[in-house]
Amino acid sequence: MKFSEKKKQKKKILWRLTQSFIILKQTFELKLFNKVCKREMPDKWRLARALPLYQNGNKLEVINYRPISNEQSMSKVFEKLVFKNKN
Fold first, then answer.
1. pTM given for the model
2. Are the beta carbons of 45 and 72 closer than 8 angstroms?
């Protein structure tokens, strides 16, 4: 087998693997989107980490901080998609 034929075979295999991965990914995303539409979000997506953010004044006083939450990005994306589709 020539070098160019091996290279072509590798490209074909890589192409098939890529296509298979894309199909699997799309299937997973579709199932996930359907769950989100039914309001069945994964538990991990519902978790957010609240962090205190300093505003101004004395740093030793709790009143000078406000909470911010660090949500999962996938959760935000799907929430926006669902909201857009319902309106």
1. 0.37
2. yes
From first to last of the 87 residues of the chain, give the pLDDT tens digit: 566 787 888 788 888 878 877 777 777 777 777 776 676 666 776 777 788 989 999 989 989 999 888 776 767 777 777 667 665
Q: Work out the end-to-end distance of the chain between its first and last CA atoms, rounded to an integer number of angstroms.
A: 59
Q: Are residues 31 and 62 in the same domain?
A: no
Torsion of CA 61, 65, 70, 76, to 10 degrees: 150
For residues 46 and 79, state if they share a domain.
yes
The whole domain housing 63 covers 42-87
Choose among 16, 34, 49: nearest CA to 81.
Answer: 34
